[in-house]
Amino acid sequence: MKVGIIRFPGSNCDRDVFHALKLAGAEPEYIWWSKRDLSDFEAIVIPGGFSYGDYLRAGAIAAITPVINGIKDCVKEDKPVLGICNGAQILAEVGLVPGVFTENQNAKFICEWTELKVETSRTPFTSMYKKNEIIKMPIAHAEGRYFTEDLKKLQDNDQIVLSFESENPNGSIQSITGVCNEEGLVCAVMPHPERASETILGSDDGLKFFKGIVKY
Questions:
Q1: 19-38 CB burial, b ≥16 within 10 A, e <16
Q2: Where do the domains of the chain lie?
Q3: Which of 31, 108, 149, 215 is the most buried (most CB within 10 A)?
Q4: CA atoms lying within 13 Å on the CB side of residue 184
Q5: Selected catalytic residue, list 13, 74, 85, 180
């Protein structure tokens, strides 16, 4: 499977995602922000980092680049799209997933390992996990607090993907730290599965996110 990795000025997790996708058996390729036609790719990953320095707010400038139109075309064609950390913020900014990721409750950058609960296995990215499975992945963000005014709709539509299992480090509503669109093919998660893709890193729980893309 040919998977595109979107690069913006300020992206810094693109190489990690490339490595994780290779481990999962995919054929990753970098895509610069100015590319509009993504028809050659079967799936898209928007990695973490600080696109355009997070000026205005995280994801705001990246949201108006040409590649976003290409990503929207991929969504229309039912191709999986995964946004990680800054990628999740971008997906929320352009309305491809519900809700927003805003400043952490303590107004500080948080970088730590967390225990997470897999809330649904219906997405390609979580299809290799069991519902309610507890996994370990790190977070690293200053604007990761999730909020939505349509919490019941998310619950009714099975759109909550990940939640913090014990401690809620950033103050997200209902400890939510990953959501998807109604179809389950666009997924935005704040934790970094690519940083938990090998046991030498402290956990390989995140590798299944990428194996799920290949399996799809």
A1: ebbeebebebeebebeeeeb
A2: 2-215
A3: 31
A4: 16
A5: 85
93 is catalytic: no
Q: Is 192 a catalytic residue?
A: yes
Q: Which one of 42, 93, 143, 194 is the catalytic residue?
A: 194
Angle between helices 207-215 and 14-24 (to 10 degrees): 60
Looking at CATH, the fold of the domain delimited by 2-215 is given as Rossmann fold (3.40.50)
Catalytic residue from among 42, 74, 141, 192: 192
Q: What is the pTM of this model?
A: 0.96
Give pLDDT tens digits for 158-209. Answer: 999 999 998 999 999 999 999 999 999 999 999 999 999 999 999 999 999 9
Is 85 marked active-site? Answer: yes
- Tokens 């690069």 label which residue? 7
Q: Which DSSP letter does residue 127 get?
A: T
